[in-house]
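Pilot study result, target chain (183 residues):
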Amino acid sequence: MSSSVNERLDIYPKRDRLALRLTKHLKTGIANCSVPSNSLLLDPVIKALWLEILNSTYPNAINDGCPEATPDMWHTGFSVTLKAVGATTKLFPFARHVAANKGLVYPELNQVADKFVKGIVTPGGIMDYETLFELAVKNIVHVWKGIDAALNGENYSFVETLEDWNLDTGRSVAINKYVFWSN
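Predicted structure:
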């Protein structure tokens, strides 16, 4: 069982309230992106923007069969999944059911391996996954607040200093230093 599966199993039950709020938030946000008469179809303006950005970044996406090249299909799948999850916070029974057809099964919660969630070595020292998760949430909120301030025309300083980050390593592409850790 991989470390990411253990981490999800460990953190999800501790975040029930967050998961419920997130599901409701995503439903509301996704609903606002739909055609008013059909919640499974993406608004044509958003769809056009999506395809324009996709095609400018990946010109062969449609020919290559990239799933993101069909925004209505992605939107329908996302909407149906949110509806199926509903207001429940029971992700893992749901995930177990969905993943079973793919040859993947989430283990039971009592099978979480401590080696993946306790005493993790990080650039900021040794910490448990819950602490690391909280730090990640804090950093994400910080970034989105900076982006929100710029989008609302309140303060552009944050986005003016944004760098290209490698999401796998957590390092700035330009200077190879950690973005959210002391270097």
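One observation from the pilot: The chain has eight helices and six strands. A full batch analysis is planned for the follow-on phase.
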